[in-house]
UniProtKB/TrEMBL annotation:
Name the record gives this protein: NAD(P)-binding domain-containing protein
Organism ancestry: Eukaryota, Fungi, Dikarya, Ascomycota, Pezizomycotina
Gene3D superfamilies to which the protein is assigned, alphabetical: NAD(P)-binding Rossmann-like Domain (3.40.50.720)
Species: Apiosordaria backusii
InterPro entries membership: NAD(P)-bd_dom_sf
Length: 322
């Protein structure tokens, strides 16, 4: 059987954007879900990776049954030490190329989707005051500099970070995604959850986003690159962690002020009024606030430069329900 270009392990939300782009680009691919359901009109292979609760032999059988592909995109989180190694080594051991025994370029290349949470307190900290404390400590460590990029230190005790570090050490690539939006995921819909009270709005600082279509374009650029050169081997892929945003640092207050009118419901949101009050209370003359007041600011230019892609869906304020 001919090798596929891409095997998607976990055809979830991102695949709503990725699968149509793979199809229109005529890139051979296959995808899995835990149930084998159809995603974007494509039947998927049932696959559930749970090494802690699966006997070694069953794990080996399940992984050896996956189709051979040049790139493997893992969209679900791996945590702690062990799972990344088990997946990569078992896949590698059961998918040795028959045509060539020598070249290491025959080894599958693993890409893990992660989140930018590892650079901060993450979503795991439920209490906002705990989160603010950790953020403050992190900012102090940076000497007050709000800027962070892919080279900034991560929280290596985060269980996802541990799994990613292992994957990187085995030659994989990690894409740490900022907030995912597009389709059903509209940032306006997050307002009741993240900005329910005036005090919650007071604590809202920066927001970083990446649209599903731009994630899809980034993945396609990576898996089709070897036609032109080999960015994977020359510092772009193997062992590299990247941060992906659309290049904007959004100010939550500016977004809430811009979304003061709920056009769908035909009413005014109270968050807009709270922002006006907070501007008076906190001495903010106009929006957006300056970077130094926004806490964390991500600089993700390097990914787009190295991989020669440009985000097309940047600037969420101008979007209306797309
Ligand atoms: N939400 C955000 O704003 C945000 C921000 C940054 C990064 N991220 C990260 O971005 C990544 C992609 O997100 P997404 O929304 O596309 O994910 P998603 O929709 O949850 O998709 C995950 C896919 O993986 C499959 N899956 C889950 N656990 C599995 C397991 N143990 N073994 C095999 N397959 C498994 C799921 O199968 P089923 O389809 O059968 O359920 C699903 O197809 C995630 O790692 C997420 O944490 C999210
Ligand atoms: C993959 O298998 C080859 C051949 O057995 C081996 O040399 C290589 O180290 C393996 N790579 C990984 C990441 O396990
Ligand atoms: C990315 O961030 C997630 C944060 O949740 C973290 O757990 C994960 O380890 C990081 N992955 C990457 C790719 O950084
Ligand atoms: C690092 O991650 C751990 C585990 O998720 C968490 O308990 C801790 O508060 C985090 N520390 C920092 C400085 O973000």
């Amino acid at each position: 059987m001919e090798h596929l270009t891409l095997l998607i392990l976990g055809a979830g939300w991102t695949s709503n954007f990725l699968i149509p782009l793979l199809q229109s680009s005529s890139i051979p691919f296959a995808a899995t879900t835990t149930s084998g359901r159809t995603v974007s009109g494509v039947p998927t292979i049932p696959f559930k990776f749970d090494p802690a609760n699966t006997p070694e032999e069953d794990l080996r059988t399940a992984i050896s049954s996956l189709p051979a592909a040049k790139y493997i995109l893992i969209t679900f989180p791996l945590t702690g030490k062990g799972p990344s190694k088990a997946l990569i080594e078992l896949y590698n051991a059961t998918h040795q190329s028959r045509s060539s025994s020598s070249s290491s370029s025959q080894e599958a290349r693993f890409i893990q989707l992660g989140s930018t949470g590892i650079w901060g307190a993450g979503r795991t900290l439920a209490a906002p005051e705990d989160k603010q404390k950790v953020e403050k400590e992190l900012a102090e460590k940076r000497g007050g500099d709000p800027w962070m990029d892919r080279h900034s230190p991560i929280n290596s005790s985060n269980p996802r970070a541990i799994a990613e570090i292992e994957l990187l050490s085995l030659g994989g690539m990690v894409l740490n995604l900022s907030g995912l939006w597009g389709g059903e995921r509209q940032p306006q819909n997050w307002i009741p959850r993240v900005a329910a009270t005036k005090e919650a709005v007071r604590g809202k600082t920066s927001l970083h986003l990446i649209h599903g279509e731009d994630i899809a374009r980034a993945v396609v650029a990576i898996v089709t690159d070897d036609e032109e050169g080999d960015r994977w081997e020359s510092g772009g892929g193997r062992g590299q962690r990247w941060m992906l945003t659309d290049g904007f640092v959004y100010d939550w207050w500016a977004l809430l002020a811009g979304w003061a009118e709920d056009k769908k419901e035909g009413k005014v949101r109270e968050q807009g009024g709270w922002v006006r009050e907070l501007m008076e209370e906190e001495g903010v003359r106009a929006l957006p606030r300056g970077m130094e007041r926004l806490g964390r600011c991500y600089d993700s230019r390097e990914f787009w430069r190295v991989w020669g892609v440009m985000p097309l869906r940047a600037g969420v304020l101008g979007e209306e329900g797309r």
